[in-house]
Design brief:
Blueprint lengths: L1 H27 L6 H20 L6 H19 L3 H5 L11 H4 L1
Helix pairs in contact: 2-3
């Protein structure tokens, strides 16, 4: 019976750790890209995609780099989160106005 109690305490401590870890991850994944930033990234991705489809980009390593850049720009724009901005503690997103300033 004593063994069961010890395992339960360990399980509870592990749950607290997982909860804390999830809290940290969720704070890390907050949206940090503004509308203009998303628009510019999508525009660049579409231009690069057009160049890729049109055959203006030579075959080889450059093709793979362009495909990766297109993918990253589209993914970060859709999600609204840029990991590099999070690491540098930057944001291009406007702060939400409080309800008092709207009156």
């Amino acid at each position: 019976m004593k063994l069961l109690v010890k395992n339960t305490k360990t399980l509870l401590n592990n749950c607290k750790f997982v909860y804390y870890l999830n809290l940290k991850v969720m704070n890390f994944l907050k949206k940090n890209m503004g509308t203009l930033d998303k628009t510019i990234r999508i525009s660049i991705a579409l231009i690069l995609l057009g160049l890729y489809i049109g055959g203006s980009i030579p075959e080889g390593t450059l093709t793979y780099i362009v495909v990766v850049v297109i993918s990253i720009f589209l993914l970060t724009s859709i999600i609204g989160f840029c990991p590099l901005y999070a690491l540098l503690n930057l944001t291009t997103r406007k702060q939400q106005k409080s309800s008092e300033s709207e009156n």
